[in-house]
Design goal:
Number of helices: 6
Structural class: mainly alpha
Helix content: 55-70%
Distance between the termini: 61 Å
Radius of gyration: 19 Å
Largest sheet: none
Shape: elongated
Number of strands: 0
Order of helices and strands: HHHHHH
Length: 135
Amino acid sequence: MGTITKQQLIAVQTHFKGLDRETRLDRLSAFFSRDVSSASSLSFTEAQEFLRAVQNQKLQDPKRKRQVRNVLSKCHELGWVLEEDPTKVDFPRLENWLLSFRSPVRKKLNHMEPPELSKIINALSAQIKKKYERS
């Protein structure tokens, strides 16, 4: 079992942003059902397990789910759909736009937090408005 990487340690600490050290360690101890004296004492596998759980929890957030559905709806309005199946969003096109200089937040959709998703929704809404103004 290897030790936690620097990148994992930063991700774990970022998850607990704003909490004091004692609270962070209490929450890690509760998650692992053992005493955790320091985040850096976690193994690579433990850190991976914790970060996956955090990501799954974020993906299940009802507000975030609504916002993602809103983004996908905007993609349909813009015509960013697959030629072979117009009921499905063209995810490569969406991801390319999200990572381009045109996007207000340069991240993949699954890595965005609700405030970032709001910026994306506003940017896509502006594109839709321009599309209909031209017509």
